[in-house]
Amino acid sequence: MEVPLEISFRDVPRSDGIDRLIHDRVERLRQRYPVLKSCRIAFEQPHRSQRSGNHYKVRIELSVPDDLLVVSHEHHDKVDFESMQVTVRRAFARGERLLREFTRRRRQDVKVHQSPAVGTIIELSDDGEGGMIEAPDGRRYLFNSRSLLDGARPKAGMQVSFSEPTDDRPSIARSVLPLATDT
Q: Is the pLDDT assigned to residue 76 strictly greater than 70?
């Protein structure tokens, strides 16, 4: 389905290159975010400066069900100038982030935190501040003093909960916490 598109230029000469860039970006948004109903773009040049270059302002209104997402991008740096293409690209990048957040909220995506794993300390290092944890399924994980929470003092045979490792460090347990303390 075609997304209705309105483009207006104020104090800026209409350019085929900018028109094509805007149409390409709107088409990309339409393909990625089917919730997009219409798009209005206002492109202007509020100030002209021979010394610091021309400054452009882009305002994008993205109409979605029950809402209007508005992006405004203006280059404020007085030393450097930003080309029309860069201004348009940056404004559309912000618009895409807004659409991504809108669709995430609409789907009610909620981050699900993984529950901590449980295991038993089967081995301690010589300094007593690290060692090895064995999970019930037989997988083994190393831990060190930085992995221990709340100043826990590990003991062999102690039941602990821990966060399973991430891909970047596959055998290191994180957030190790004793389940029950011995008295």
A: no
pLDDT given for residue 82 in this prediction: 66
Q: Judge if 21 and 45 occupy the same domain.
A: yes
From residue 22, alpha-carbon distances to 4, 8, 28, 75, 133 in Å are 13, 11, 10, 18, 56
Rounded to an integer, what distance in angstroms lies between the CA atom of residue 107 and that of residue 130? 43
Name residue 44's beta-bridge partners.
10, 57
Rounded Cα distance between 128 and 124, Å, is 6
H/E element, 64: strand 55-64
| Tens of pLDDT, residues 44-72 | 887 666 555 567 888 999 998 888 999 98
Tell me if the pTM is above 0.85: no
Under a CB-based contact definition with an 8 Å cutoff, are residues 73 and 97 in contact? no
DSSP 147-160: GB-TT----TT-EE
**20 and 79 share a domain?**
yes
The domain that holds 32 is classified in CATH as: 3.30.160.100
135-163 pLDDT, tens digit per residue, is 999 989 999 888 888 877 888 999 999 98
CATH classification of the domain holding 150: 2.40.50.140
